[in-house]
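Fold description:
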Amino acid sequence: MSEEIIAEKVEEGLRKTYARRLFKPFAQAIVEYSLVAPEDKIAVCISGGKDSMLMAKLFQELKRHNKFPFELVFLVMDPGYSPENRTLVEQNAEKLGIPVTIFETEIFAHTAAAEKSPCYLCARMRRGHLYHKAQELGCNKIALGHHFDDVIETILMGMLYGGQVQTMLPKVKSENFAGMELIRPMYFVREKDILTWKNAYGLRFLQCACRLTAGSQDGTMDSKRQRVKELIRTLRREEPQIEKNIFKSVENVSLASVIAYKDKDGVRHRFDEE
């Protein structure tokens, strides 16, 4: 199948076969959280994985509707990929008809030397480079491909391993880059539906290209996130609505019935303070 035909089939699928499971929740998040506004210039950040590649195609579909003017830049940051992984990203972008802008960094080289929390450091550095490049290109927003399952896993990870109640927000103003905002338009998209879409077209994407996690790209790495995924899977057998209930838990917080909470400035308040 030629690359043009694959792109056409994927686009047709997002309008028909996968409209309800992929495009509808994508558009719902954009409307509900006001993620896209007229005259926005959005850097759609593509890591090379299934989530960000799908996000790029969904943005192209949104642009096709053209209800108001906005611009898209499909931004790929190369943090130090191997030649094979760099080629895979480029080939997938061409195959799917995504006109990417690629820029290079040395993030992998820097984080490989970190003794503590290299993954956390890598994520922070990636975010900073993406903001900087997007701003340089005249963008006012960056879009990341975190989906619904990422959100609920983050809620549980914060509670179980961090001793706090928090989640990924659908929209965040940057503290370090004036006028810039981060948006997550895949907020309501389920990972199982992304996998179904990927497999339907026989697509192969990057999973984790970091040398520190080599050998664990099949999802078997013993990590906190993987354990939380398995916990949710186990709970779902008894309660089919468990994912929705976890998500709703951070929508229905009652400050009158918690022992303490922090306000937006980080100031802690107790239930018994005057």
